[in-house]
């Protein structure tokens, strides 16, 4: 059985661990920024929601298609963009995602100016890989 390190040995390791932690935080921030930039400027519309259906991210392309600024959509229910006659389609797809299924389906969305336009939605659930808990729809 290995001996436990002394207090002095552990104390000497602290600065090195702090440096490693700082470097990891920088790498994580850089990766987050990179992926957010990709999502923001991709040519397809993208929306991310939380488990309560609230929009937590909308990219530039979908914002343009809908005619809303991102801050006008973030925090709102994504179903607010779906016309009443299309709600059943969206809710059935959500129910399937709750069981881990992905979907591709056509639906209409509302623009800010009231016009409707067709979109092809590709959606899937997001799970925490370690706990297998649902993260977002």
Spatial separation of the terminal alpha carbons: 47 Å
Uncertain segments: none
What is the averaged pLDDT score? 86
Helix content: 40-55%
CATH topology of the largest domain: Beta-Lactamase
Tally of structural domains: 2
Assembly state: single chain
Q: Compute the gyration radius: what is it?
A: 21 Å
Count of separate DSSP helical elements: 4
Assigned CATH class of the largest domain: Alpha Beta
Structural class: alpha+beta
User: Major beta sheet, specifics?
Assistant: 2 strands, antiparallel
What proportion of the residues form beta strands (DSSP E)? 15-25%
The count of DSSP E runs of length 2 or more, i.e. the number of strands, is 6
CATH level 4 superfamily of the largest domain: PAS domain
Q: Order of strands in the sheet with the most strands?
A: 1-2
Shape: elongated
Output the helix-strand order. HEEHHHEEEE
Task: Tell me which CATH architecture of the largest domain applies here.
Answer: 2-Layer Sandwich
Describe this structure in words.
This protein is of the alpha+beta class. Helices cover 42% and strands 20% of the residues. The protein has two domains: 7-41; 43-136, PAS domain (Beta-Lactamase, 2-Layer Sandwich), CATH 3.30.450.20. The protein has a two-stranded antiparallel sheet with strand order 1-2. Strands 3-4 form a two-stranded antiparallel sheet. The protein has a two-stranded antiparallel ribbon with strand order 5-6. The N and C termini lie far apart (47 Å). The model has no long low-confidence stretch (mean pLDDT 86).
